[in-house]
């Protein structure tokens, strides 16, 4: 009974900071676009398919997330 209450509490508790699981990946891609001034054409982030052709089709949102992260970090991202 105690175990069920403890496990149930995990599922009932609402997280304080809801975010996309890929948030940090999107920020990294946006930072790379801002740093190099061009879109990545190959996948340099994967371990299994590194070097394969890849298109950053969410580039505008990734740049926006990178700029918000630069401006205010996690606090600014939680309000974005």
Notes on the structure:
The chain has three helices and no strands. The protein has helices at residues 2-12, 23-36, 59-79. The longest helix has 21 residues, at 59-79. The termini are far apart. The mean pLDDT is 83.
The best one-word shape is flat
Largest sheet: none
Amount of beta strand? under 5%
Q: Give me the oligomer status.
A: single chain
Order of helices and strands: HHH
Low-confidence stretches: none
Q: Structural class of the secondary elements?
A: mainly alpha
Mean pLDDT: 83
The span between the termini is: 40 Å
The Cα radius of gyration reads: 17 Å
What is the helix tally?
A: 3
What is the β-strand count?
0
How much helix is in the residues? 55-70%
Topology readout:
Elements: H1 2-12, H2 23-36, H3 59-79
List descriptors:
single chain; 80 residues; 3 helices
Describe what is shown at a glance:
The protein has 3 helices and no strands. The mean pLDDT is 83.
